[in-house]
Amino acid sequence: GESVGLHLPTLSVQEGDNSIINCAYSNSASDYFIWYKQESGKGPQFIIDIRSNMDKRQGQRVTVLLNKTVKHLSLQIAATQPGDSAVYFCAETPNDYKLSFGAGTTVTVRA
Amino acid sequence: KAGVTQTPRYLIKTRGQQVTLSCSPISGHRSVSWYQQTPGQGLQFLFEYFSETQRNKGNFPGRFSGRQFSNSRSEMNVSTLELGDSALYLCASTAQGAGDNEQFFGPGTRLTVL
Predict the structure, then answer these.
(1) If we measure between CA atoms, which residue out of B46, B37, B25 comes closest to residue B96?
(2) What percentage of chain B's residues is helix, strand, coil (to nearest 5)?
(3) Is the bond preceding residue B8 a cis peptide, omega within 30 degrees?
(4) Contact B45 A100 (CB under 8 A)
(5) Per residue in A46-73, is it b (16+ CB within 10 Å) or e — as a string?
(6) Which residues in chain B have their CB less than 8 angstroms from residue A104's CB?
């Protein structure tokens, strides 16, 4: 079946640097994409979302980029902080309800 | 507003038993979705309920079932447990208003099948 996947399982970043987490999706019918952050022992936490009629959306210290031509999604975190250490998942859905998640990228922030 | 709550947080069962997990959505949220999270398969969609009706279903066997009550609280049941059912079961609720489809996740129930 179709699925969403992340390019790298782990990412190590220096505190204060910018982080970029990538995700490829294959369901061309998907029109809603979300990034989640999951810390140990907790459920996924919404970070930012984007609809397919947009190619960029900014939040607080985070930016999501969507390239529908190559079915690629990325999450940029500015000035990465120790509290950003977590597993990051991209998710996509064609109907707002049934989310398909990628495998996740574990981000470790070095002090 | 209180977040999504799930009970119990941890559960240990043996093969062949059945289990019922409970989820209370955020007040006012009418949609509840269930996901299974394992190291090998990641997060996988189980089913989604809205107004007491199952609206979407994932690719899980019939041993996995759920229901939703009139107050939007939801339960999922797994019968004839197998070792592979050991996982973190996550519940998420959504307001389902116009443009308001963000899913809020609970902390999960950690099920261990021995």
Answers:
(1) B25
(2) 5, 55, 45
(3) yes
(4) yes
(5) ebbbbeeeeeeeeeeebbbbbebeebeb
(6) 42
> Is B59 within 8 Å of A1 when comparing Cβ atoms?
yes
Distance (Å) of CA B18 to CA A58, A97, B76: 45, 27, 11
pLDDT at res. A4: 57
Tokens of A49: 């979302």
Q: Residue B22, SS3?
A: strand
Do residues A97 and B57 lie in contact, with contact meaning Cβ atoms separated by under 8 Å?
A: no
How many residues are there in chain A?
111
pLDDT digits (tens, 9 = 90+) for B26-58: 999 999 999 999 988 899 999 999 999 999 899
For residues A10 and B9, give the distance between their C-alpha atoms in angstroms, rounded to a whole number: 28
Q: Which of A43, A97, A103 sits opposite B42 (nearest CB)?
A: A103
Using the beta-carbon criterion (under 8 Å), do B107 and A41 form an inter-chain contact? yes
What percentage of chain B has pLDDT greater than the value 90?
A: 83
